Every structure is written in C-alpha cells, then in structure tokens.
Amino acid sequence: MRNAPTAAGDPAVPGRLAALGRFCFRHRRWVLGLWAVVLVVGVLIGGRVFEGTVAGASSATAEADRGSAVVAATDPARGTVTAVVDGKPVDDPAVRAAVTKATADLAALPGVSSALDAYGAGPAPAALRSADGTASLVTVRMADTSTSAQTDAVTQRLAALNGEAGAHVTVGGDLVLQDEVKKQTEQDTRFGEMVTLPLTLVVMVLVFGGLAAASLPVIGAVASVGGALLAMFGFSRIMDIDTSVLPIATVLGLGLSIDYALLMVNRFREERGHGAGIAAAVERTAATAGRTVAFSGLTVAVALSGLFVFTSPVLGAVAAAGVSVVVIAVAAALTLIPALLGFAGSRIKAPAAPVPDEGFFSRTVRRVGKRAVPVALACVALLMAAGAPFLHADMRNSGAAVLPASSAGRQVADAVDQRFPQAAAAPITVVVEGGAPVAQAYADDVVAKLPGVAGVRAVNPVSDSVSTVDVLVHGDPQGHQAKQVVQELRDDRGGLKTYVTGGAASVVDFKDELMSRGPWALGLVAVGTLVLLFLMTGSVVMPVKALLMNLLSLGASLGALTLVFQDGYFSGLLGFSPTGGLETFIPVLVFAFAFGLSMDYEVFLLARIKELRDKGHSCTRAVELGVQRSGRIITSAALLMVIVFAGFALGDMLMVKQMGIALAVAVAVDATLVRCLLVPAAMSLFGEFNWWAPAPLRRLHRRFGLSEHVELPTVGEAAVGEAAVGEASVGEAAVPAPRPEARDLVGSAQSAQ
Predict the structure, then answer these.
(1) What is the C-alpha R_g of the chain?
(2) Which of 26, 61, 217, 730 is the most exposed place for a label (fewest CB within 10 A)?
(3) Nearest to 679, CA basis, from 241, 365, 459, 317
(4) CB distance 644 to 254 below 8 Å
(5) Are 690 and 542 in contact (CB under 8 A)?
(6) Longest alpha-carbon distance in the chain
(7) pLDDT per residue over 628-655, tens digit each?
C-alpha cells in the first residue's frame, strides 16, 4: 500500500509537530510496530517491576530511619515470620508437643537465625503467651542472607501446624506482610485496568458515536501502560521504588493517555468534518491538538517535579515515575495516535456539522455572567466548606492496616497488637549507642521522668555497643500525645547519642520534612505553572486566578479524603475500616497529581478562550464561545478520568483507595464547579483586565510567548481529490466537498481539540 499524499492545493501545515504527525502517518506500520514492541517488552519485562519494589522504602535523612539502620547494621536480619497458634489452651499437652516440634524443625532450616515459642524459659517466651492463655506465638527470625525460597519453607512449616492438636494457625510477620503488599498491589493494579478500560471504551463509543474512534484512545492507553511499566522497571534497577508507587503511576498514565488520545481523535473528526482528507486531517490534528497535548503534559510534569524537592524516597520515586509516564503518554498521543488514524481514519465517523456557537455551555456562561458576583462567592464558599475537614486531618503510618481485613498478615499483626502487648512493637523505640547498663540508666533517669511517658517496657541489648529502649505512651500510639513524647525524647537525650524511632517518630519526621521543604516544593510548582500560563496567555492575571482556583478545588478533594478515610463516612460502602488518619504521603501526592490534572483542563479551556480573544472577540464573547466549544470534550475527558480513578479505588489496598477517591473528586469538582461556573464568573468580573500584563512582560511575551493557535491553510476543494485518489488505497470513500461556511471555519479551528 502506498502512502497517501497531501492533497493538492492543501499546503503542508508548518511546524515541527505537524511534521511529526506527517511522518508517523506516512510510516505508520513502523510506528505501530515500535509501539507493539514497547507493549510486549513492557508486559514481559516491565511486569516484573512488582518483584523488585520495596514495601516501605527508608530515608537516609529521617532520624527514625537512621536509627533503624543502626540496629540493622548491628543485628542484621532480613525480617521475621510469625504464627499465631489459637483455638486451644496454650498448656494443652498436644498443642505443646506440636509447637515445640515445629520450633525445633524451624531452627534447623537454612536461613533461620532463631526460632522461639512460648514454652522456653525466661521473659521472652512469656511475652509470646496471650494474657488469657488461649493463644501463643511462634516467631522466626530470618538471617539477612536468607532467600525468598527459605522464607517460603518457613511459612509452609508453620502453616502445617494448622489443624494439629485442634489448633488454628495463622502465619504472618513483616516478611509475609511485605509479600502480601506486593501481591495485593499488583492485583489491584490489574483489577483497575480490567475495570476501567472496558468502561472507558463504552463511554467513548457514546461520545464519538462509533467503535473505530472510541477504540483508538484505549489502544493508546494500553500501549502507554506497557511503556510506563518498562520505565518504572528501569527506575527500580537504580533506586528503591516503594510498592505503592506502581498503581499511583499507572493510574496517572492510564488517565492521561486516554485524555490526550481523546483530544487527538476529536480534533481529527473535526478536521474531517471540515472536508480534509485523512493525511491532511492527521497533519492538522498534530499541529493543533498535538500542541495542546504537549503543553498540557508539560504542566503536569512541572507539578510532579515539585516532589523532587523532598528527601522522602517514596515521593522521589513517585516524581521520577510520574514524570516518565507523562512523557510516555504524550509520546503515545503524538506518534501512535497519528499512526492509528492512518489505519482507521476512513472508518471514523466525522461530525455532520461544527460545534454550534449556541448551546448548553454558552447559555450557562451567559447566566453566570449576569450573576457573576453571587455565583463566584457561592462557589468559593462551597469549595472552602468542602475543604474545611482537612484542617483537622491527622497523618499516620497505617502499617498492616493498608491491607484488607482478610489478609493473613494483617490478621496476625492485629492479633499481636491486641492480645500480645509485650510482643507488639512499642509505640516509640529509642536506639541508644551504648551497652545495656548505659541504656538502663538513660531509661531510668531521663525517659521515665518525661511528661507524657506512660512507662518503659524493656531495655533490650542489641550488641555490646547498641541497645534499644521500648517506650510506652498513653492513648493512640500515633496520636498527639505520642508525637509530643517523640519531641521530648529528642529534646533531652541525656548526653548520649540516641535515635528516636517507631511509628510516631516516622510521622513526626515526615511532618518536619513537609514544613521545611514543602514551601520550596509549592513555590517551584507555583512559579513553573505561572510562567507556563503566562507564556501561553500573555497575562499575569489569569495565571494567578488559575492558581488560586486550583488550590480551592484541591482543598475540596483533601476535605473529601479526610471525611471518608479519617472520619469513616461511606467506609462500609467502599469496603475498608478507617484508621483514624490519612497515610502520611497521600495528601502530598494528591496535591501534586490533582494540581497537574487541574492545570491540564485549565490549558484546554484557556487555549480556546485565548485563541478567540486573539481573533478579535470581546472577553465576554470569547469566554462564551470558548466554554461552548470545549465544554463537551472537557466534560467527556473528566468523566473518563473519574472512571479510571474510581476503578482503582475499588481495589483493596488502602493507599490506592485514598488516591483513587481523592483524584476522582478533584477532577469531578474541577471539570464542573470550577470550569463551568467559577472560571466564567471570574472572567466576567475581571473583564478586559483578564489580559493585563505590565508593558515589559507584554514585550517579553511577544518575543518568547507560546501560542496555542496555529494558522492552518484553508482546506481547498482539492481535498476531494485527495479523498478519491490519494487515499483510495486505504479504502476511504470520498468526503463531500465542504460548504463554504465550513471552510471558513477552518481558519478559526480551535487548537484545544
């Protein structure tokens, strides 16, 4: 099959993106083959990224993590496997015989550092016996040189106890928890993809009125996911990737890929409706919608880049993975979609008429403009009220609670906390660089006398030079009292070198990082987006307004997050048990992701309004036409995003649920309340002042500004000849010659679609 030429009389569209679209169309077989390779390699190799992730990556700067590293260096161990033996009295002879035999067998297995049960002598075995005498623990420490296969052998031997002497055995421990987190994360990610892709296909069939056009964004999204997996696999080879990063990056890549492909296909249909042949329509699509896609991807990447400011490995990994999937989503939209349009363009139904200038969105904007002040005040009040619950948000490390209640690892962790308090991890652990006598004196003279400390549970010698002190607190182990004790212990170290660790200490460390680095991250994101929007609009007013409006919609999202996951509203419907707080890093990720997505829609809308303004329309009319011509596609894109995020929220991992719900709310609020009401109201209030900028900045914009508008050559009558001759090889029926009024619209075709 020969390549279709550009129609005679239709000059080539200028610009690099137009040239890229033209190249991908002409060499569509090679482009499609390349993306097919990316998809296959991404699935076969990138799918192994789940195996190389780390559950709870540590930071080299946080005191809690440094203290844990000191203990690990002195007493290396890969982790523990713990079994709860329940259902029969601990002193039952048959149970005792079965457990002691299993413990002896376990101690002899390769890779096992130690194996303890409740039947030895001394205080340690006593801690492995429940207070009511109806359950006991078997704990196995694995050497740091042990393998996963050796851990599996230990797990199988403990599981074999189940049913012996009538006892019920549940196997967990930190090694089992880590494995379950990886498996559940992978399962939730696969489930989210399987749920969202068919639903998005159905919605796009309704949007485009045909399967051919609807299938292209889905194909592009699948290819992007393969590329994203491959990119994250590469990052996992050079840095620690927390397990929670994978579904977060996947959901972002999936949503953006669908959105960007939707814009490209929609613009292609518009061009075909104006009478352009397939080759010309692809080229014009790349020159217009392609520019919007590239610019939007840049704004999302800038928002995610703010995470690089933090030292937390989770946030750094999310930033690296997030930026990479944005690049891949943009690349798929600019290369794969033009190639696919070359194959399926003749089967994509073109609209019978251009988007009318009058409709639901334009009427809504007019009504809003007549009542701009009350509408703006009502929207701001509503968004602030929705965000108010976040003011009492509490950050915490959920630990095993991130897993569903049916998880064996979580069941064991809950049983240890509730029934074996002496064996449970202390709320706060102080690592002391010194022997047991030094640590005991420090515990007696300093720790026990601090206000807020409920007592010292134990002093544990780790080696001759390192000891740990288990500190008890009143109330919630990660509540306000516990955090206050952490600060007290760090203020008074008794002249020793100590590290305050534990769940409460980790939360304090993360909050300290937010306080010290958060303003820098926020400033980077704000400056970056302000500069980008100024280069696009030439105004200093609209970028500032966009920033403030996005912050309001973000507040509403974080407020909903607090109501659902901290206060427990709708927890039964969503299938989880609230932990009393939000996972520490989730609000930061929600801010970065939702901010980027909100700016994405801001670009779509402002590009339309700016283009119409440049064509001489008044500010009021430009807003009306801009919202009318972009409202349907923005609403459709937002609906698809909500479906993607909600699909991932149906998973069982608590962190994935939190991200899914928060982002779904953020996109829904932004695409409806903000874009359809607040933005038009604010534009009406400011009038011509919307476009104000100081004279030096106006000169700067004239020289360096980024114009979303591309002056396209008019589609000529020769487009008919292209359809009939140049593209006969792809089986396309000739497109009727456009009406003169339709041709006139081409010069003002909107760049956002």
Answers:
(1) 30
(2) 61
(3) 365
(4) yes
(5) yes
(6) 96
(7) 888 888 888 888 888 888 888 888 888 8
